[in-house]
Amino acid sequence: MPLVLNMKLHELKNLLALHPVAHVRFQLPGGEFAPAHSHVTEVARIDKRFIDCGGTLRTETICRLQTWSADDTDHRLTAGKLAKILAKAESVLLTEDLDVDIEHEVGVITQFPLSAVTLADDQLIFQLTERHTACLAMDKCLPPAAVVSDLNPMKFDFTGTSAPNKCC
User: Fold this and answer.
1) According to the model, what pLDDT value does residue 120 have?
2) Nearest CA to 137 among 53, 57, 50?
């Protein structure tokens, strides 16, 4: 099965439908696995509205699946069961064109984007990746690239009295 990057909800649902008896496993970014008896306890639509450091209004909407591991170590989540859970959440999610991420506790509650799902034996392996921060307004926040000939230490303002940057 090929890897799928930036997994969308509709892609995930198609994979679940193709392999309904496969057990679902969550592989963390470092390669280790969440306990085999982890299951999805919550499906959420997360709508985020924010202003970036350049003053631009932005929005982001994702589907978040929260995992949990109980004392019931015989518990196993199948793709068919997860498909039924996602079907129950359709009225909350409103669309299948959402990126999916997994909320899992690894000392602290952490959100991992779902980067791929692979089939191995009787398991669908949900491969999780790390989330990173970034400046979304680099064109406004970062100074223009200096020309090498302009790198004269005598031109630096070490007093901090020059005009402040327009951003950040």
Assistant:
1) 92
2) 53
Contact between 141 and 168 (Cβ < 8 Å): yes
Tally Cβ neighbours within 10 Å of residue 8: 17
Q: Which of 1, 35, 11, 31 is nearest to 104 (CA)?
A: 35
b/e code 70-89 from CB counts within 10 Å (16+ = b): eeeeeeebbbebbbebbeeb
The pTM for the full model equals 0.78
Q: Which are the contacts of 147, defined by CB distance < 8 A and separation ≥ 6? A: none
Name the amino acid, one letter, at 45.
R
Q: Is 105 left (phi over 0), alpha (psi -120 to 50) or beta?
A: beta
Beta bridge partners of 119: 124
The ranges of the chain with pLDDT < 70 are 1-5, 143-168
pLDDT of residue 131: 86
CA distance 65 to 43: 5
Could you list the beta-strand ranges (E) of the chain.
23-27, 39-51, 57-68, 99-105, 109-120, 123-128
